[in-house]
Write the C-alpha cells for this entry.
Amino acid sequence: MAAALLGTLVCACAPLPQYTRLPVVQYPSVNVNERRPSFVILHHTGDADAKQALGTLTRAAAEVSAHYLVARDGTLFYLVDEFKRAWHAGPAYWGGELDMNSASIGIELDNDGAAAYAEAQIEALLALLADLKERYRIPAANFIGHADIAPGRKVDPGVNFPWKRLAERGFGLWCEPPYEAVPPGLDTGMLLGAFGYDIADRGAAIGAFNRHFAGVESTRMAAAERSRLYCLVMRRRPAQGG
C-alpha cells in the first residue's frame, strides 16, 4: 500500500541506476549534481611510446589507468570518464587528502622519464588543463605531480617537466626571488606540511619539493629553496579558494 502510494508521487525524473539487490521504491530527487574532481595529478608514463602506454593503461591485469594520455605529438587520448575514479595515484597524500584517486583527474604524459617534453605535447596539455580548470573550477594550487603526492615512491613527471611554464598559465604555484625571510620558529618540516606534503619521510618530501621547484634531485633543502617554500606556503593560502 505504502509502496503504491509512493509510486504515484514519484516525479518524472529518470530512473536511478540501482546497485542494491534489496527491494526499494525509487523516489528520485532533483537536488543532485555530479561529484567533481578538485585536483589534477600529472604523471609520465615511463614507457617508450604512447602505443605501449595505451596498452598498459587499458590492460586489466595492469590495474592502472588515467583519465587522459597526452602523446608526444599532442594527441589527447581519453581513457576514463572524468566523473569516474581512475587508478593512477596509488597510496598518496596531499594536504590532508588520502584518497587522491577519488579527488582527482589523472593525466599521463608520454615520456620515458629522461627525455625532454615535446612542445606539441605541452601545448596540448596546457589546452586540456585550461578546459579542466574552467569546467571544474580547480584552484591553481591543486595542479600537482605524482611525486608530490607520493614522495619517496614516485618521481614523475620528473625534473624535466616545465612546472614554471604551467604556473605562469595558472596551473600550479610558483615563486621567484627575491623572497621574504622565513620567520623564526618555522622549520622545514612544518613548511612542507603546510604546503601539502606528507612529511612522514622528511627527506623524501624535500626531494619531491626540489624535483618540482628546483629541477634537481636532492634531499637537502638549500636556504634559497627554504625561502621559496615559505613564499609558496603563503601563496597557497589564498589560492586554495580559487
